[in-house]
Every structure is written in C-alpha cells, then in structure tokens.
Amino acid sequence: MKIIENPQFQIDKNILQRPVFEMFSLIGKVKPIMDKIKNDGDSAIIEFNRIYDNFESPVFLIQKSELEQIAQLCSLELKSAIRQASENIKKFHSAQVSENKLVETMSGVRCWQKTVPIQKVGLYIPGGSAPLFSTVLMLAIPAKLAGCSEIVLCTPPSEKGLNPAIAFAALTSGIEQIFQIGGSQAIAALTYGTESVTKVDKIFGPGNQFVTAAKQLASLEGVAIDLPAGPSEVLVYADESANPKFVAADLLSQAEHGVDSQVILLSLNIEIVQSVLAEIAVQLEKLPRKEVAKKALNNSKAFLVASENDAINLINEYAPEHLILAIKNYNSVQEKIVNAGSIFLGNYSPESAGDYASGTNHTLPTNGYARAYSGVSLDSFCKKITVQEISKEGLKNIGKVIEIMAEAENLFAHKNAVSIRF
Questions:
Q1: Burial of residue 332, with CB atoms counted within 10 A of its CB: 0-12 exposed, 13-18 middle, 19 or more buried
Q2: For 2-19+230-359, CATH number?
C-alpha cells in the first residue's frame, strides 16, 4: 500500500480513484450474450453453461427435493451459524416495515401511501472460488418479508455441484428452487425470460464486472436493478486507540474479495499507519487467498492527514462501501459522515459482522455510489403507491387552487376536469 501524506483530493481527484472499470468495452462483450439469451432462450443458457462453466448437463434447474439432499452435506456447525444469521437478518429487516399514514391535507382531501411488494424479483448469487451463500440470506429474506410473489434465484453452475451452504441458505430463506446459470447470461435470462426462467421486474445481487455490465443493460430494457455496484472496498479510519492487528485484518478481509478490490487506511498518526502495514505483511502470508489480496493491495492506499476535519472530508468525498471508525470518538465522527454504505463503530465491530450475521444487509453501493444510493433494505423489494380520496366538499375546498394553477400552465383540460364537476 502506498502512503500518501496530506492528500490534496480537492485538487487532484485521481488520488481517490478506484481501479479502472471500463464499462463501455465490457458492455460490448456482454451485449451479444444478452441478445443470444433473448433470442434462443434455454438452448443459449445450456451453451453458455458449457462454454463458461464447463457444465455439460442440459438440466440447470434444481428443485426442492434435490436441494434438500444437497443441503444435507452442509456441516451441523455451519447450519447452526446460518440459522442464527438468518434470525438476525429477519429481525433487523422486519423492523423496517413502515406504517401507512393517512394525512388529511385539507378538509375533505385525504392522502396516503400504500406499500406493495414488487411481484417478480431475480436474485443473483456469485459462485466461483468464493460461493456467497451469505448473499442468499441478505436477498431472499427481505424479498420474502416484503411478500414478493415470485423469487427467481440464479447462481453459477459448478462441475463439483451446487455448494451445500447455498442450498441450505436457500431453503432456510424459503427458496425452493435454484437455476444454475452464471454471469451475464443469468442477468439476461432474468431480464428477458426463457422457457424455464421467469422474466422479473427487478434484479438484485453482486457480481463481477460482466454481471455489473449486464445489469446496466438490463436497466435499459425496463428491468430495475438494486444499485450500481463494482468491486468491494473498505476504508478504515484509525487513531492511537486502534489495534493494528484488528485494522490489518479488516483491510485484508476486503482485499481477499478480488484483485480489483480496494482498501484504504486513514490516520492522523504515521506510527499507526506503519504498524498496520507491518501487520498486514505478517497476516497476508497466512491467507489462502494471499495472491488475490496482494494484487488488491496494489490498488490500495494509506492516507496520512493533518486533522480530524480533513479525515471526515476525505471519507465523505471517497464515499466508501464499508467504513470502519477505529477511533476513540467514533460516535461524534459518525454523525458527520454523510456518504457511506455501512458504518462500523469501534474496535469490536469488524466489517465481517455486517457481511454475515449482525443483521444489516451487505449488498451495498460501491465505487462512490454511496453519495446517492442506499444499501439493499426491505424497501428495495417494495413500491410505494400514493392514494387519495377527495369528497365533494373537499374538491370545492381545493378546486379553485387547481383551476388557477392549471390555467397558468395553459393546461385547460386539467382545469376543466375540476370545473366540470361543479
């Protein structure tokens, strides 16, 4: 990790730049895959499964009975952990249910919102070297709580078969079938629908750059997506109260996600920075995914700033996906943070807790999108529909206001829609 003292990010925006993400060239590679799925349906899925995942079977749907058999291979210890994480996630997301409040804006004019679930949602669960069964919980549980009528789950196929933890997490979350489809072809199947896969209204889930590009194309086809996402990232703000071993472990926990991940260390104290970097070198050698983490560290930086105000400004400018405040006065600082996906306070709130089991959702905006986007929540699976009921007396009370405003905009049919009633 490169150490940068007193970063002038207000002048040079490149200082806070993420790894290059060439969306335009990726879309050029992904669109032909999307088009082939659109035109050829299941046969194209079978072909791409063979080409990209060495999956030769023409059957890519796993039904509940087979999921139950696969889930039996999951260890008792892991099953217990998944159940506990599931309960915490349910508890946190259940608390997000909002009341529909009726407001009488003036006498006889009653307005309210009603919350309805998105009917058909698609969930994409990454596979590969790190099958993210935790993402099944993060997406399927709020989808079920919201009441989505159809939930379509896709995950890449594997020559070794479906990961038992994914099968168990799916069943625990109320999902009873899984489509073995990976990458941009899975997003295409959810976007257009095929003979086997239902076309959905909104697509959720993280993935590699090809999945992200496919989701961008899906959004042009009238299918909503959860949020723009790129490689995973964490920023740790540490002071003398921080434990360098803890900070190093937190940084490495994100670095091991992928070679294009980025981790940022921020401090006012050069000794803290040096201690953390030394500890990273020690812990790195013990990681099974150390080669991945090493490459990610090449994209990563340690910033040394002069004041807490500088630190807060840098955090808000960078808008990290994950922010860890390993500092004494974390409560007062977190109140000043306006751009972050999820915040972790103190030395005993590792980012891994949010990834797995604390209850919060780990599907979060990356690449600076935390300036405008929230992470996935119960509301992500719902729509808010406004409703109004106006009595005859209520329309008399508000009618003149409508007529004056409509006439001022030269929209006389709008005015007449009120006038004709009297």
A1: exposed
A2: 3.40.50.1980
Catalytic residue, candidates 233, 256, 279, 321: 321
- Annotation marks residue 321 as catalytic: yes
Note down pLDDT in tens along the chain; length 422 residues: 899 999 988 778 788 888 766 667 888 899 999 999 999 999 999 999 999 999 999 999 999 999 999 999 999 999 999 999 999 999 999 999 988 899 999 999 999 999 999 999 999 999 866 689 999 999 999 999 999 999 999 999 988 899 999 999 999 999 999 999 999 999 999 999 999 999 999 999 988 889 989 999 999 999 999 998 778 899 999 999 999 999 999 999 999 988 989 999 999 999 999 999 999 999 999 999 999 999 999 989 999 999 999 999 999 999 999 999 999 999 999 999 999 999 999 999 999 999 999 999 999 999 999 999 999 999 999 999 999 999 999 999 999 999 999 999 999 999 999 999 99
Q: What is the CATH number of domain 23-102+116-225?
A: 3.40.50.1980
- Judge if 2-19+230-359 and 23-102+116-225 fold alike in CATH terms: yes
Domain-by-domain residue ranges, the chain?
A: 2-19+230-359, 23-102+116-225, 391-419
Q: Give this prediction's pTM.
A: 0.93
